[in-house]
């Protein structure tokens, strides 16, 4: 397993090109199952999770062609075509590698009237149930049984529109049911729907494919089902979590980085929080610049569904606050076990006390480098951020977690002056 070695203490300066959003690309790719025509996606990042989902879609019968490689400042252009669905089963050995595979459930059921999808199982950050996905599809007329670790779903007469109210905001359940509703008979209303930019990006692509959706960007989506959808071309929205991660790299090292294609509009809660901590943001022609000119102050953060502070930036924020002046209370309200970066940060000298869903961070003048263990995608990158600021050498183990969601991370950071390299095992 590869490792990443960092010698910290250098302020980062330069620019980083932000790629297409992983969490938009994944549902957009499953949307290709909804039509027998070609869906062309541009700005597709080259990530392990994208490769995993590609393998799953290909075994369903989706043709996946890279039309053009990475376009300089843009990701790859790919064409997906599900002319015929040759299998409606998503097998455990593929789904277990990436939970988002469950997003084939709604499209397969809508297109074919049947689907057998492995239950994704939990992961490091929580049990990650899919009860809201199942409940919504049942309301749309699907018959769903759970057997042998699989979801067995059927809707021989097709799905029908339903009024669905989510008891809690769920990105994946919103996306699965949104896709299913585009081919259901009649109208579906999704109330308390997720408003993440990745959900909005998916809705916009579905409209380009001929779907009829109202309320895009709000917490109530109204979908009038169609008999079929057609092909389209769609550019994937830039990755706000990658953007937030790298702007915190500038902040934690006391440097200044231009985030090319970064969109601060999708990070308003993060922008407000970090401005209060002493970070300055300046729009540029290609995106925006984040700089830390003076001190870094401890501020509180609580993760919430969009437009609140994203849970996917919680670990990175904790690394940043561990070297701030003063204290910070960081509260995780979305997942039940998303503090696994805490013991690793503490090995680097961070002072963190966890009480249930809240962590009190007392800032220290300096972290010290140490060998640390990555546990999940975002916890891994918080250790990289800590290593960039720490005195001495940090070696992050199990960086396959990083490769799931960050393309060429060490190259992008090295180009801004970081002393970082990948140690091939
Ligand atoms: C998406 O996961 C993202 N993944 C996650 O990013 C992100 O952290 C999460 O949304 C929250 O923003 C992708 O988009 C591929 P949820 P998802 O359904 O859809 C509970 C990353 O690092 N819940 O919004 O699985 C659930 O347990 C990943 O890129 C149910 O109870 O998240 C959680 O507590 C990590 N029942 C809360 O809702 C359900 O049926 C939010 O989960 C579904 C979810």
Could you give a quick summary of the protein structure above?
The chain is α/β, with parallel strands linked by helices.
Textual characterization of the structure:
The structure is a single chain. This protein is α/β, with parallel strands linked by helices. It has 14 helices and 24 strands. The chain starts with a strand and ends with a strand. Bound molecules: ligand EPZ. Ligand EPZ binds next to helix 1, helix 5, helix 6 and helix 12.
Estimated radius of gyration: 21 Å
- The averaged pLDDT comes out at 96
Strand percent estimate? 25-35%
Taking strands numbered 1, 2, ... along the chain, how are they ordered across the largest sheet? 22-23-1-24
Low-confidence runs of at least 5 consecutive residues:
none
Largest sheet: 4 strands, mixed
SSE inventory with pairings:
Elements: E1 3-7, E2 13-17, H1 22-30, E3 38-44, H2 48-60, E4 63-68, E5 76-81, E6 89-90, H3 92-95, H4 105-112, E7 114-118, H5 131-139, E8 143-147, E9 150-154, E10 163-165, H6 171-181, E11 187-191, H7 197-208, E12 212-214, E13 220-224, E14 232-235, H8 240-253, E15 256-260, H9 268-277, E16 279-283, E17 287-292, E18 301-302, H10 314-321, E19 327-331, H11 341-347, E20 351-355, E21 358-362, E22 371-373, H12 377-389, E23 393-397, H13 400-403, H14 409-414, E24 419-423
Parallel strand pairs: 2-15, 3-14, 6-7, 10-11, 18-19, 22-23
Antiparallel strand pairs: 1-23, 1-24, 3-5, 4-5, 7-9, 8-9, 11-13, 12-13, 15-17, 16-17, 19-21, 20-21
The structure holds ligand EPZ.
The site of ligand EPZ has 22 residues, from helix 1, helix 5, helix 6 and helix 12.
């Amino acid at each position: 397993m590869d490792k990443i070695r960092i010698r910290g203490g250098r302020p980062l300066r330069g620019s980083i090109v932000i790629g297409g959003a992983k969490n938009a690309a994944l549902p957009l790719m499953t949307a290709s199952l909804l039509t027998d025509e070609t869906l062309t996606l541009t700005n597709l990042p080259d990530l392990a999770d994208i490769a995993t989902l590609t393998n799953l879609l290909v075994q369903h019968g989706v043709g996946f062609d890279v039309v053009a490689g990475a376009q300089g400042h843009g990701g790859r252009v790919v064409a997906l075509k599900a002319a015929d669905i040759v299998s409606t089963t998503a097998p455990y050995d593929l789904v277990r590698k990436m939970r988002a595979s469950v997003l084939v459930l709604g499209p397969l059921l809508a297109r074919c009237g049947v689907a057998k999808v492995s239950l994704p199982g939990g992961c490091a950050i929580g049990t990650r149930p899919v009860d809201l996905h199942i409940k919504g599809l049942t309301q749309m007329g699907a018959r769903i049984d759970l057997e042998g670790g699989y979801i067995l779903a059927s809707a021989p007469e097709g799905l029908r529109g339903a009024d669905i109210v989510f008891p809690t905001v769920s990105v994946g359940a919103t996306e699965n049911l949104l896709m299913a509703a585009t081919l259901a008979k009649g109208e579906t209303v999704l109330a308390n729907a997720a408003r993440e930019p990745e959900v909005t990006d998916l809705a916009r692509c579905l409209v380009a494919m001929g779907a009829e959706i109202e309320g895009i960007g709000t917490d109530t989506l109204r979908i009038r089902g169609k008999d079929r959808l057609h092909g389209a071309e769609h550019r994937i929205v830039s990755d706000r979590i990658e953007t937030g991660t790298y702007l915190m790299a500038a902040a934690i090292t006391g440097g200044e980085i231009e985030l090319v294609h970064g969109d601060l509009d999708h990070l308003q809660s993060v922008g407000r929080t970090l401005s209060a901590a002493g970070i300055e943001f300046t729009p540029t022609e290609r995106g925006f610049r984040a700089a830390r000119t003076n001190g870094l102050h401890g501020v509180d953060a609580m993760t919430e569904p969009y437009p609140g502070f994203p849970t996917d930036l919680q670990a990175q924020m904790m690394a940043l606050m561990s070297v701030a002046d003063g204290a910070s209370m960081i509260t995780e309200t979305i997942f039940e076990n998303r503090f696994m970066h805490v013991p690793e940060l503490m090995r680097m000298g961070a002072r963190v006390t966890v009480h249930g869903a809240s962590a009190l961070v007392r800032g220290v003048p300096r972290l010290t480098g140490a060998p640390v263990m990555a546990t999940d995608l975002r916890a891994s990158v918080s250790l990289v951020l800590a290593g960039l600021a720490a005195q001495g050498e940090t070696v992050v183990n199990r960086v396959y977690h990083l490769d799931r969601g960050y393309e060429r991370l060490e190259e992008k950071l090295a180009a801004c002056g970081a002393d970082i390299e990948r140690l091939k095992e």
